[in-house]
Amino acid sequence: MKDEYRFLPLSLSPCPSIWYNPGRSSRNGAKIMSPSRRDPEIIADFQCHNAEVPTWHAGEQKLYWTDIPTGRMFRYDPGTGESEQIYQGEPVGGFVVAEDGSLLLFKTKGTIERWNGGTITTIVPEIPEQRDTRFNDAIVDPVGRVYSGTMATPKHPGCLFRLDLDGTLHVVLDAAEVPNGMGFNRDRTRLYYTDSPQRTIYSFEYDRETGDLRDRQAFLITPDGEGVPDGLTVDAEGCIWSARWDGGHLFRYSPEGEELLRIPFPARKVSSVTFGGADYTDIFVTTAGGNDRPREGEGAGAVFRLNLGIRGVPEFTAKLVSPRHRR
Predict the structure, then answer these.
(1) Annotation says 292 is catalytic
(2) Nearest by Cα to 55 from 264, 303, 273
């Protein structure tokens, strides 16, 4: 989420723990998580200003995330329960795991780099027209291409870019504001794409052969006063999980857009979500606001884990195969 935006939050009460109560529903019939022993536990707390892009590294069996404003990245090892900072530098607004296990970092000014155990190599030095902004979020498609968007500035709109296997960059969507969480539907024929200030999760027809996106439709528009949609992932049943910035909850929606579940967190800014663990039933959730906990909540800026027995799916890995050139 863009750090400067401020949205009207939901009214939050302290919620240190959650559980699934089959007898309790919201007004629209969605199940609500309530206090009990099935808690979302804090697994790492670096009081991040804006922890984002939680990413499960299947090869390492570790979780990575970025704290965008402070230019830090972290890694959590569930085997030992330990976390560590692994990067300090230019802010990383999005990143993905590559086929060789390295990370592709999407940064400020349109810069794209490869991080491999602390060694950084440049893929795209910059995009001249994006010098006053940064990338925000990223996802790999089934072929190994990468989509990542840049945020709008007062001078120009944001764009959604596609990085092809040969290193070429293509604009696939312009007139974006804050490109955010993305995920593919169950049969990989449509891409969900979030634009936070528009309070909308869109759905595009996805062409696997070309990587083109067509037929944009509004999948979900969040109500006024309930925050805005941020990070997103899709589970094995094809249901959409959306983090709610300034809304204090994580939501699960059916492929038809019906709200199935809302999970409260002790943080107003729930920023993103992913599945991981050996069987992909661990849900990892990032939050923002660790630099202002009196306002943002006692868990703001921490990274949480919970397990509801719902299975996610592995993310695809990037397959950049040749030196970069730009079209």
Answers:
(1) no
(2) 273
